[in-house]
Recover the amino acids of this structure.
């Protein structure tokens, strides 16, 4: 099922210029509906809601309120009828040509109706215009379906992604890990979730190169 999403002025659909968050409102392509995708930092209140929910999730390591509030590139899916956010996506642009789609998150009551796919694909329509390569680590089967439907190539684990490539190994084990772990918040959450939820954080890896997004 695909739920049509009304794209906000900050995210004109199919526009290569959409990476610029400002600009005139885009003409809607379809009748207005309840959901709007916006590229913007979360408010402190929204960040508090999302970090509190993610703290209860054994499968997501976690990003700090500061990262949600402007330190990272974030998209929010707004439920306009209820004047609240239905979910959000956080992108971590790493040094070099890689970026990580680090979190795709919907509040529980919004799951199971295709909004996760809309959130990821809507963000990718903007992000892939920059020509970067995108990484996605995940463990949920829903996410695997959404990722492969969005053009990601899926690897069973980090070893399969590296598969004998010294460059990929250097990137993943050194460059990526150093940037990803450079967060006291994340280190603390990983330790807590391993202890409280026995989280193994055994992730599959999705890779999207320019031109692969749908
Ligand atoms: C992961 C998440 C974003 C998915 O969004 P969603 O809108 O709830 O996704 P849907 O329920 O529409 O399911 C997506 C796909 O998974 C499929 N799916 C549902 N249950 C499934 C299952 N048990 N096994 C395999 N696939 C399943 C759906 O059929 C759908 O595929 P389709 O569109 O081809 O039919 C959302 O569930 C979420 O926020 N979860 C918590 C956070 C999280 O774990 N994020 C991922 C890591 S960053």
């Amino acid at each position: 099922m695909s739920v049509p999403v009304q794209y906000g002025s900050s995210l004109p659909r199919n526009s290569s210029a959409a990476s610029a968050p400002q600009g005139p409102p885009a003409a809607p392509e379809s009748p207005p509906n309840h959901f709007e995708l916006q590229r913007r930092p979360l408010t402190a209140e929204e960040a508090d809601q999302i970090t509190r929910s993610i703290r209860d999730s054994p499968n997501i390591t976690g990003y700090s309120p500061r990262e949600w509030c402007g330190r990272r590139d974030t998209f929010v899916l707004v439920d306009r009828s209820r004047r609240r956010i239905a979910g959000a996506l956080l992108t971590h642009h790493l040094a070099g040509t890689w970026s990580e789609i680090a979190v795709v998150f919907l509040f529980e009551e919004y799951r199971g109706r295709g909004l996760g796919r809309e959130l990821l694909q809507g963000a990718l329509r903007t992000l892939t215009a920059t020509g970067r390569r995108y990484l996605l680590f995940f463990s949920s089967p829903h996410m695997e379906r959404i990722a492969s439907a969005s053009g990601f190539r899926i690897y069973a684990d980090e070893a399969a992604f590296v598969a004998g490539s010294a460059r990929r190994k250097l990137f993943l084990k050194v460059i990526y890990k150093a940037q990803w772990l450079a967060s006291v918040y994340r280190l603390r959450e990983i330790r807590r979730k391993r202890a409280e939820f026995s989280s193994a954080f055994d992730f599959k890896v999705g890779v999207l190169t320019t031109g692969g997004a749908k």
